[in-house]
């Protein structure tokens, strides 16, 4: 059971209420934390549209005088946008627009925290989106919700939302109030919403069913979707026709009690999510362990991973068992030893395997060396040699049997494991073993309004061309990940010290990569970037992975990596998108470049059209201008 | 004949030359002003791609030692990008890329002003575009040209260029070197280039034909296209196989002489273009005549228009002749009289029509009033009354028969003629005449890399949401203009002083407009914005127009107006784009909002698909946030 102290906001709408008291009092009384009230009554619009009337005649919100100041913070204002905003007649249209404007100004005057527009369920004209987006610029402190109804046999709801927010240039003041009908559409059309800024979930009382005792409960399909949405920290709103409505037992309070019950009963967070608390959808710059020295706290966090070191120990054990059991000791080298967790595990593996070993712990960080030397003295003894040196430039006194490293980033090679191991493999015996022996990067197109908003909020080029490490939450993967490239160690193509031959224009060419992968999306969607993962083979079948389909259970050392797109790409249902990805190098740095090119929608015969080159997003991070990893 | 003192730069390429002297000396000798030389010879690439070779082996540009310093400013460097940039093999691809990088660095070292990439004629991979765009970031002071061959039966050349510059994010360092084959494609595919940054036109000697005496000349089709390109200030390059080549009489010098001849013989500029010298593709903010007082020099320029005032005089004459010839004098009012050109013309029309008139000259600009009073005293006498007042707030002593104004902007209503005349029509007799009696705004989708570059160079929102007055040159209209809306005067819907009733939320609602217009484009294109024009009916069939198809010959008072798009829209051949346009008002200002939504390509049966809403460009200038005209 999840933390029951988490607060959950559940509001009430009484659709026949005409003043704050009429909804505010019963809401409070039945345990609701806020209320929704339309700022105008429906008949006002009829008055307004009479040819002789002016706005002054129509807009007389006398019922909305707030009888207590407290209502201002309690009431969310419903905006009547009317069906005539897209009238052919200029004056009718403009009267409706002026009426919206007056409601917005009225809401600002009252100090309401939020206003709610209701998206038309039929086809959109362009004036409704324009008026909604214009209203956002009039709202200084308030937010706007767009109420969108999700129901069976309507797969267009997301498209209407997408049009409105695209026309508004992705204004962060606009969020979604998702109203769930009694029957939900296919799960494909629900998943789209997990990448959107869903602020509120609206549940009409008619979307509840009665349990055996007559009290309101939700169908299983609704419960599953709500639990997913609860992870996004949504609030709720119960919408009833009137105070006297009695569809279910238990009165108006029973609905909020049931929602709070569902909230309490949601599944426990798994260990990775517990570890990630506070990091969901938070952008972190990837580590630069080669250029910077990691801090003690960073080591401390990663050393606690319950899975990673267990798998390394298994891999070392298996590798040792595969080496001939000779009289001479087996030479192990841990390169990038940090504060010693791999040294500890390697020694344990040797003990389990009953092998005599000599172990070199090579580390360039002078601060970590202090810890290593202390542990050698207190724990490890003479079989461990602590070497303070950058592995790329070390002259080893002998060659080793097993070269152990943990230099992987979220994208596998993005913390320069390939370059480091090119240097380190100089002191690996010809028949020696590298742990890890290979790693593969994976990509998938993804949607996330939240992450797009974060990277564009800086209004510069740099932030939209930088990969970030992110624990995904309000993210929707648009297709399954595909592998882009693999690095294998030792790389016997690398002779001598090529990895260090900085003067050569051939330098590091063998560690460049390029791949293009085509993905097909099932529903209409807006692609905001590329999700990146890795799988690594430590030794034979000992693997670690952060690929969603093969993720090592409970391993928390790596979150996925997010490569943004500057401009979101609209992908129609059943269309393709080709992602091009490069890993590039010069003498001082390694960087990624990427772009995405949409293809046409699938033809009737299922044949895929070629990508439409003119609609390519620009190349990101040309020449590493915005982001790179220093050698 | 055009100004023969204009300088024209014509260069020479000798395709078999291997060092600067070999091309530089003959180029100078035969009257060329620069030369193109490949920085590497073809066989270098073969050396490089041998598995055992390194870049050092391959890149030995000994032949490129500049024998004289002067060659650095004379030589343009050809870059060998090779056909292997899109090889499947990582190392081959990277060797080719490193070779390009060395050439670019070499060109920078030599201080060459430009380098030339040659676009592949077959389908593009993504590495060629990436390497070209990466090179731009390595070129500190030099520019790059992309050599694109235009020839019969290849309609894809523009699409290849568009892909390359789109992937590069529209980098202004990259321009086009357009090579014309012996036969040109359909004019549709030539016109595309007029909106592009064509810096150089390359003419292989094989694209020339021999005249009756055996000297090189160009076909008529080439001449027509070149004359269009010459307006864009291009330079030329003659490409010959070798020094000894003798396809035509007259030697190598004959080609540049012929080009210079064509340049001298190009048609005289018409009066509008002469007037516009220095203003082509230059962004001007539209006037704000209501908020600002025009300067004397501004009046001076516009008073010189040879056509506008002639048409106004015709209109006033016709209107006077249509009024009953009674004993009492006809009352004319010129509102916004400026320094008096319309007063003068109206008096002339009255004289021609032999009508006695009393004329009120109403002007709000206190500086212009000085001139009006002086002219009344020295030229016009007692029949003219000079009134210093804003026409919207004037209390006229009597009503007039004919209300004359020249308040039109490039988009018709964009200098607030509707609002001004709403105020002024209070003192027009019920059967009185307004000159102009109506005006209509027109829009067309357009492409212009130059103008897009200008508005985005500021890297802010304001400049991409502001309309500009521009004399178009490097602009390609993607479809014929269509009317969006019309204003007619007097507007009898406007009762009393509604136009001035600033307190009313209904204020000025009747002057708001909305229209959506769909255009079909013939070729693939990149839409950068919307071109705006107007047609005005002064009186009955007396018209003035800046619509390209109906432009009043010789009238120079108005250039077109350009509404930018933030992000260029790619439009496939035979597809549609729907432009939505609004004219909106509040109590203090009037502004435009606009957006464009591409549709699908035409189906086989010619049926047009609906617009793809998710690909809409964002609404521009929401709530007038970036640009507006003050009331």
Automatic annotation (TrEMBL), chains A, B:
InterPro entries: Arg_MeTrfase, Arg_MeTrfase_PRMT5, PRMT5, PRMT5_C, PRMT5_TIM, SAM-dependent_MTases_sf. Residues 273-435 form the PRMT5 arginine-N-methyltransferase domain. Pfam families: PRMT5, PRMT5_C, PRMT5_TIM. The keyword Transferase applies. One of its GO terms (cellular component) is cytosol. This is Protein arginine N-methyltransferase. GO terms for molecular function: protein-arginine N-methyltransferase activity. Keywords: Methyltransferase, S-adenosyl-L-methionine, Transferase. Residues 438-629 form the PRMT5 oligomerisation domain. Residues 32-264 form the PRMT5 TIM barrel domain. The record marks 302 as: Critical for specifying symmetric addition of methyl groups. S-adenosyl-L-methionine binds at residues 299, 308-309, 363, 390-391. The keyword S-adenosyl-L-methionine applies. One of its GO terms (biological process) is methylation. The active site is at residues 406, 415. Belongs to the class I-like SAM-binding methyltransferase superfamily. PANTHER family: PROTEIN ARGININE N-METHYLTRANSFERASE 5.
